[in-house]
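mind reviewing these tokens:
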Amino acid sequence: MVKKWLERYKAVIIIFLIAIIAAGGVALFYKHPWGGEPLEIVLTNPTPVLEPEAEIYVAGAVVWPGWYTLDGDSLEDAIIAAGGATSDADLSKIKLYIFESDASFEPQKIDINRAEDWLLEALPGIGPTLAQRIVDYRNQNGPFDRVEDLMEVGGIGQAKYDGLRDLITVQ
């Protein structure tokens, strides 16, 4: 009985389903139109201006890393004061620390489990080779459990560790 009914109204059922699918497509198109005018988004990256008499530490891929006192200059001026960016510098990854002369200064410890090689190089006695050894050791053996574990890295003995222990941490 059902089979006869389906055969008799097969064409009507198919036309009804096609109409429902077409109506759904039209409704979806009007709810989320794809054919409109393209939206233009412009992102600007304004150059921040430093506070008057700011001390700024410029490091990384610059000719002369170090502290510079700038009087309301821009970040570009700070990089120029450091001798300019080197040819291999990625200027999209600039990181600067600005120290205001009236602020109290507590040195921040460097987490040896998360620091990249360029930041490790800021530690006294750590050059590019030793910084890379620390990163390689961490990648091969996992994170350091204690700051004393830094002495497991080749080239870091007790004397070098003693000069670093108050500047580093593990988290």
Q: What stands out?
A: Helices lie at 2-8, 10-31, 75-81, 117-120, 128-141, 158-164. The mean pLDDT is 78. Residues 54-100 form one domain. Residues 74 and 153 are 39 Å apart (CA to CA).
